[in-house]
Every structure is written in structure tokens, then in C-alpha cells.
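Marked as duplicate of an earlier ticket. Keeping the data here for the record.
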Amino acid sequence: MSSDSWSDRLLGGLRKTQERLADNLAGLTGGTRLTGEQLDDIEDALIASDLGPRAAARIRERLAAGRFESGLDEAALRGSVATEIEAILRTVAKPLDIVAFPRPQVILVIGVNGSGKTTTIAKLAHLFQEQDYSVMLAAGDTFRAAAIGQLRVWADRLGVPIVSGAEGGDPASIVFDAVKQATAAGTDVLIVDTAGRLQNKRELMDELAKVRRVLGRLNPAAPHDVVLVLDATNGQNALQQIDVFREVAGVTGLVMTKLDGTARGGVLVAAAEQYGLPIHAIGVGEKIDDLRPFDPALVARVIAGDVS
């Protein structure tokens, strides 16, 4: 995919976020320094755009210290906001690097049902294939027949092997078989789907702990990554999911999906500021190549409307 088409998709996916922020910032023009009232309005606008109170306070503080030599207009304000958003995002923009030795690198993918977890696994697999890595999938979400079936379909489309079992089977057994097969085949990346039930946190925690124990017996460094898939349309509720899954699963990084038309794309910034967890990739559509490592400068400019 060309960078131009990705930029276009990103612009389309974040347009509502951009429009919401633009509406909230409209009319905040004036002299070379922002007044306290204007800063209050900007902070409120950022919070209303789902950037969260911490990021909003940080951006306000930075803007308060700035000078606008030619007088503040909307373009200058958008540019300054983009700069501050980029500063927040730059520290967490970290692609998933495949560095495990011995192979495979084991990536546990977690997230609530409906977050786009299974589709995101397929998109991650495609991303790794583009980098010439060999990939295997493991259908560890055995509590939903639909999840197993969907992952099998994706594996077939991508031409990658999959280890799966029957609905209601033991996830740890499937993961055990998958790691043995991936190790024997010299596979670079093993991506493991996991259950997304949060109704009983203790049950989920016990299940994930069992999976980890099994992994550790076969490969003491595994899992190398625990990636939480978040649905951007959930807005601030996505942040609550980070809290829960950090507790039950030891999240090491995030993937933000469904940045395709939602007005809540600002939650990407809120997550970065509040948690500082690596954000490995973002998704802006349903196509297989609609998940990409993100460019913090481009995302910041798009959210702030600082694009031509």
C-alpha cells in the first residue's frame, strides 16, 4: 500500500474526530498569547474530543507557555495542538519487532469480544507476511465456535497453518501443541487468540495464567508480547479495558482498531498519555491491509486538522 493511500484512509477514518475537535476549537483566536479563558476553552475542547483530562491538561500547559508572534489564528492553533499531540504519541509508537531467539516469537492477543480481535490477528499475520516472516495461528478462544471458525477462514485465506480444537476445549493444550509445531517448523511468529470474557475476571486470569505456565515450559521467554486489541468506538470505555486487562493479563502493548469514522479517535491520545504502553498499530477499516504501524506525526496532524 502506498503511503498516500494510507494517509487518505487515515484522514477518512479520523475525519469525525477532526471535525469534533475543530468545532470545539472554532473561534479561539486572538493575540500573541492565549488568555486563561481561551486555555480553559481549549482544555474543554480536547476533553470533549476524547483526548482525556491528562492529555488535555498537558497540552494546555504547553500552549500557555507558547507565543504566537503573528497573532493566534485557527491554523496556528491547530498546528500547535498537532505538535503537542505528536509529542505524546511519539513515545509510544513502537511497531511489533520480531526478535525472539529461538523462534517462534509468541504473541498473545487479548481483548473483549466484539473488539475486532480475531480480524486484527489476521491483519497482524498479513503485516508480518509482508515483512517475509512465517506465521502460525492458534485458536485459543475455545469458548466461541464462531471465533475458531473465523480464525480458520482467515488462516486459509492467508495461507498460514493454524492449530485449533473443538469448542470448549482446553486453550492451554492448543497453545502447547501450537508452540511445539511452530518450534519444530522454525516458524517466526505464533499468534495466539485468547478468550475475551470479562464477566468473570478471576476465571479469565486463571485461564491466562495456565496458558502462560504451559508456554513457559516450552519457551521460558514466551509469551514475548501480550497485545490488547481496543475498539476506538468505545471511547473512554476502552481505557477501562486497559485497566482490567493489565491486571489479568500483563498487557505489553496495544492495537487500536475501528478508527474508521468514529468521532472518538482522540482516545488514542488518552491511552498514550495515561498508560504509556506501546501502541503497535492502528486499524482504519475492514480490509486485510487496513492495519499499519502508525506515524505519530501524521496521526497528530490529522486529529488536529493540521493537514492540507
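See parent ticket for discussion. The chain has twelve helices and eight strands.
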